[in-house]
């Protein structure tokens, strides 16, 4: 923690010392997680100094320790940092993409929405550098959606805190217990497993104090799921078994079914297929007794998975067909699609003709499920396509959608995710509601298994589905919470809170990325709007650094448009904010940009002062590439003034720094300008050597435009000679 604090204050020497001391302390205490976190801080420190080999070793060592400690979230963060490191090397783009994709999978597994958003941001930046602009845009849009949802987390946590305080004042033990259970579910979703466990344990104690058997059973069920998530399988099994006993004592049939279903998943995970099958069969009997069609359907689906796992394909097909029939009976199209996907796998194994039918049927189901977004947007005012369901449309289907044929995504593959734009959402005439759940294969909402004493705030919201088509109805709530229940036929399903992560700040950063993408595509109006919107959100979030970088981006945009007054104002405002934030690196970059602007205006004295000041700050921030860029800029300025000795020294110094930072592009540019300088002073042999070196380096990183420039110079040189 001390190391991180020193880094934030730009005290890098102190940061390294503090982190090394902490690492030694954690080694002596045999604390794997502590060591891994110390190595992560050291890796980030080395990255900042451009000591990339040392940084990579630190990240790799941290990754190994997080694997040993079975920390999914730790591994995800290590991979994210490794991806960022590899992104700095043009020849390691494929490795960087794999690191980000692996990090994304682990962040999904850890239910860390902010982590996923950042992985998508990084992938978007990678795709931009590879000129894969459609993939970049999709990554940035997905990241933006995840960050938007963060506001719900903040609001949810505040609501739970307020409720807990009120229940304490009223000495309502049961109310406090339910609040703590809500906190546990919130922390689970955020991947804060220690906080979640404490909340569930505290809720369990209070439910014992209130003699609520059903409340205790549900707490134990939640603890079992948490232990499963951590791979603490013995603790998970004990929790589920204890929950089962208490649900029996409370005569809660659906609760017992859910416990057995959870136990079956645990046994499947341990490859104890006989125990898993028995648990599923027992759960099935209980769901039949409770007349829960959805519970029966999900159990049949998992029996299908189990039989498929043990190569009993005929039994698997029978179970899955039963599940499909039950899903159709209650119009649960999302679940039906999930079962169809398993059927596809069986058909692929058996190479049967039925595969084509199931493939088409799956697409049909998913197209119909597209109405989920429209429903949740109209009723709740939120977009929800990122939560557990992937809707799909075909090119043919898009012809019936406004703007569908023009939609960029519709032209890339036969079946793609639909656009998030409202113009691409196709209303479906079927008024049956389709639910969006975090876990589409969950057996049944826990709402039905909790009595009014255990869940005093659970209310079934019984409004007609037709309300979304403009006809009179009861007014639904405008925000989702874990206590909203939506009717599907005669079954009531609990809709989990649609959480996300990092709120306003995340949205602002995503808009910043989108602005950069639009800049890259020469869509300057869209870019300006994105940067301005990002600036407003960064102001709202009181992020001084965020505002500074938005202004920096706007300055770059105005430079592209030759709006030099606006550009200068943006860079000067950014510089003031970076000073306010004591960000030496930010100030250095602002001064670098101002230097380029003054060069453009032929204000050479102001330009030289800006570059020299930037160089001093880049040294202070230990930014090797930044120093190289400042010297390269000074070299160009001295060439412009015909001060060739000063120019040569600047380019040579820049070249050394680029070598130190292993920047191939920097070295290539320095060699190219040394070639230009030697051509001007008629040192043709030296000029040719430097230009050929530059050409080889540009080829290495596939910079074709720069290659063409060097070839043109070599041609001029050959004429000169």
From TrEMBL:
Taxonomic path: Eukaryota, Fungi, Dikarya, Basidiomycota, Agaricomycotina
Placement of TPR repeats on the sequence: 36-69, 117-150, 177-210, 217-250, 508-541, 548-581, 588-621, 628-661
Organism: Sphaerobolus stellatus (strain SS14)
Family annotation (PROSITE patterns): TPR
Protein name as it appears in the record: Uncharacterized protein
SMART domains associated with the record: TPR
Pfam families, A to Z: TPR_12, TPR_7
Coiled-coil boundaries: 52-113, 153-293, 524-584, 644-704
Family matches, as PANTHER family: RAPSYN-RELATED
